[in-house]
Amino acid sequence: MPFQILPTSLDDVRILERHAFGDQRGFFARLFDREELAALGWTVPVAQVNHSFTARRGSIRGMHYQRSPHADMKLVTCIRGAVLDVALDVRAGSPTLAKWHGEVLSAENRRALLIPEGFAHGFQALTDDVELIYCHSAPYVPASDAAHNVFDPVFGIDWPEPVTDMSDRDRNHAMLANPFEGVAF
Ligand SMILES: Cc1cn([C@H]2C[C@H](O)[C@@H](COP(=O)(O)OP(=O)(O)O[C@H]3O[C@H](C)C(=O)[C@H](O)[C@H]3O)O2)c(=O)[nH]c1=O
């Protein structure tokens, strides 16, 4: 099997641990598999694959998502260094609305996080020189881009490292009024 599928504290957010076909040269591992992902609800072709590099330990990016009708599933894979990867439920009416799950993804543990539509995504670099590969089920549509503040007390995301770097855009996402009703998807 190319992946071991592991549950998380949030239904439909799953960990995919990539099996490494190793030998004396090194290893070969699959990043995406249509049949394996279809069984987990990814039933459309991959629309976009992105690559991000984050130089400094402690940097944070997030919490980003796309609104309907351009909501997307993401498969986030760390191929260099390590991150705390966070999925945050922002779906109106969800029993886990405003709940988040954090998972350490690293080149070493070969874990990826499968993040369904309706979840915001963010991460903190736990090492310098982190590289992530994102597979998306829908293309990037700037007009549908949405985000919440990574420090919003409504969510209480527990970032493990002192924050060293963020984009101005991410620093300036508005804090929410309580109670948070969620977003329609
Ligand atoms: C997502 C995306 C962005 N862009 C452009 C838009 C900006 O001009 C530039 C950087 O985008 P952004 O500042 O949103 O990049 P990050 O802050 O790393 O956000 C990313 O990391 C967080 C944690 C995510 O989950 C999102 O997938 C993604 O938005 O790339 C594109 O051209 N295509 C794309 O698919």
UniProtKB/TrEMBL annotation:
InterPro entries per the UniProt record, alphabetical: RmlC-like, RmlC-like_jellyroll, RmlC_Cupin_sf
One term under GO cellular component: cytosol
NCBIfam families linked: rmlC
Keywords: Isomerase
Reactions catalysed according to its record: dTDP-4-dehydro-6-deoxy-alpha-D-glucose = dTDP-4-dehydro-beta-L-rhamnose
Keyword Isomerase: yes
Protein's job: Catalyzes the epimerization of the C3' and C5'positions of dTDP-6-deoxy-D-xylo-4-hexulose, forming dTDP-6-deoxy-L-lyxo-4-hexulose.
Transmembrane segments: none
Subunit relationships: Homodimer.
Pathway(s): Carbohydrate biosynthesis; dTDP-L-rhamnose biosynthesis
EC numbers, comma separated: 5.1.3.13
Gene3D superfamilies reported in the protein's UniProt record: Jelly Rolls
GO MF: dTDP-4-dehydrorhamnose 3,5-epimerase activity
Biological-process GO terms, alphabetical: dTDP-rhamnose biosynthetic process; polysaccharide biosynthetic process
Active site (record annotation): H64 (proton acceptor), Y134 (proton donor)
Site (Participates in a stacking interaction with the thymidine ring of dTDP-4-oxo-6-deoxyglucose): Y140
Protein name, as recorded: dTDP-4-dehydrorhamnose 3,5-epimerase
Family: Belongs to the dTDP-4-dehydrorhamnose 3,5-epimerase family.
